[in-house]
Amino acid sequence: MIARLLGAVAVVALLLVSPAAPASAQSGSNDLAASSPSDGATLGTSPAFMTFAFQQPVDADESFTVAVGCGVPAQPQSTGIPQLADDDVTFTVEVLAPFPKGACTITWLLRDDLNQPIATDLIAFSVAADTVAAGVVADDASNITVPAVPVASLESETNATGGSNGGAVWLGRLISGVAVLILFGSAVMIALIWPEGPLYTVTQRFMITIWTVALVGTVLYVAALTADFTENSFGAALSPFSWLDLFNSGWPGRAAVLRLVLVGGCLWIAVYPERINEPGSQALAVLLPTGAAATMAFSRLDGELVALGILIDLIHIASVGIWFGGAVLVGRVVLAGPGPADLVKATRNYTQIATTALVVAVISGVAQTYRLVGGAVLNSSYGRVLVVKSIAVIAMAFVAIGARSVINAKLARRETMSAAHAERFRRTFGTEALIGVVVLAFSGWLLSLNPPKVSLIPEMTYAVTVPVEDAASGFVAEVSLDPSRVGLNGLEVLVVETPAPITDLVVEFDPEVGSYGRGTIQDIPLTGRGVARLPLGTGLPFDVPGTWTVTVTVSYETGLRAVATGAVMIYEADGSTPTSSTTLPAVPTSIVGTTGSTIVPTTVAADGAATETTTP
What are the tens digits of pLDDT across the range 195-218? Predict the structure, then answer.
C-alpha cells in the first residue's frame, strides 16, 4: 500500500516538473518558420516581394493578412493580396509601392475558417535607401490609393471613323454616295418613265461619267476606311490587298467593300444603258445600282432597334435616290436641249414621282433622327449639325415644290420641249440638285459624329452595382465591382447627373470594424457626366470578405461638397458567402461647405439602417 502511494506521488511530481508542450504542437496551431525580410534585417532598398513560410501547411479555408507600416509615426504601405504557393506553406506578397527609407514593421495574422486568430506577430526591419515609387502609392493611415483610368464620357462627340484619315473618309463617302445615288436614281427613272433615254448619246456619256466618279469616290472611301482601321498610311491603304482587312472591322467596312464590287459591276450598264430596258437583262441592270445604294444603310449600325434603323435607312436611301438621282438625270440629260414628246413626258412624270419620294425621304429622315437623337437636338454637336442640315432640306423642299408647280403648269398642254423651257427647267433642277449635294454633305458629316442616344462606352457586365444618390444636390452615380470577391476587382464609376462641374471625386471602400482588412481610396478622374473604369488586372484589392462601406465624396466648383454612402458585399475568393451577419447603420448624406459646416443633411434609408444578412 505504501509502495503504491509513493508511486503515485512520484508520477504527480514528474508531471509537475515536466516542461509544457510547445504551442506549435497543439491542435490547430501554426507559426512562422521564416520570412523575407526577416526580423531585425536591414535592406539596401525596398523589396519587390515579401515571403512568409509557415511551419505547417495552411488550409484552404484559413486566411493570411499582412500590414506594413514605415516611418514615425508609422504610415501604412501598399502591398498586394497574399498568394499561397503550391507547397501550401509559403505566402508571397507583392510590394505595390516601394517602402521608404527608415524603420518599418510588418504585422501578420493567420486566421482559421471562423476568423479566429491562429498566430500573429510583428517583424521589424529597416530600409537603408529610398526607391523610386511606381504603381500604387500610399495615402492615409488606413487606406491605399489606386489610380483609375477613364475610358469614355457620356458626352463624347467623336466616332471611330474620326481618326487621322477622317477627312478622307468624309470626302470619299460623299463622292461615292452622291454618284451611287445618281446611278440608282437614273436606272430607276429610265426603267419607269423614260425608256427612250438609252437611245440618246448624251445618256451613255452621262452614265459613264457618273460611274467613273462613283468608282473613284468608292476607292477613296474604302482606302480611307482601311487606313483608319489598320492605322497604316493612306498610300499603303490604296493596295487592294489591304482592303480585305475591312472584313474584320464590322459591317460598315464590309458594306464599303461590297459597294466597291457592285459599283464595278455597274460598268456593265454604264457602257450600254439599253440593258436597263431589255427584258433579259433589266432585273440585273437595276439590281446592281440598287445594291450599291443599299450598302449605305450599313454605314452606321448603333443605337437602339438597329434592325428597325436599317429598314428606315433603306427606305430613306431609296426615296432620296429616286428624288435626287432623277433630278440630276432630268436636269443634265432629259433637258439637255429641245426635243420631242418623250422629253416632255419624262419631265412631267418625274415631277409626280419626285414629290412622293421627297415626302417619304423627309418622314423616314425624321424617324431615324428620333431613334438616334430623341429630344437632345441642341445639346450635342450631332444635333446642331442636324439643325443646319434641316434648314438645307427645307430650302431644297421649297425649291422643289415651286419647280414642280411651274413645270406642271408650263408642260400641261405641250407635246414638245422648246429650247427656252429646257434652259429654264434645267437651271431649276440644277439648283435643286446642288442643294441636295449640300444636304448629303451634312449627312456625311453626321456619320462622323456620335448621336446623343448612342453611347461610345463599351458595354461591361459587373457582379454588383451600388447606386449612390444625393437628392439634396442632384448628384447621381453608380459604383460597380467585379467579381466582388476577395482579391483584385474591376471598378466602374458612372456619374449620371451632377448639379455643377466636379473638382474632386473620390470613392472609398472600408471593411467591417475588427475584420483586420484595409480600406481603399480611389480617385475618380471625372469632372462631369461620364464613366471611369479600372481594369480587373490593375483593380482594387479587397483583402477580407464581408460587408464593405462605399463612400462617395464629391466636391463642386461652387465650393460645396457632398458625401454619400452605400454598402457592398465582398465574397470569399472562391465566391462563397462569408460566414457572418452584419448590420450597418445608415450614414447621413450631407452637403458640406468649405468651412466644414453641414448645410443640407439627408439620409440614405428611410428606416435609418441598411442591413445585409448572410448565410451562416
Answer: 888 888 888 899 999 999 999 999
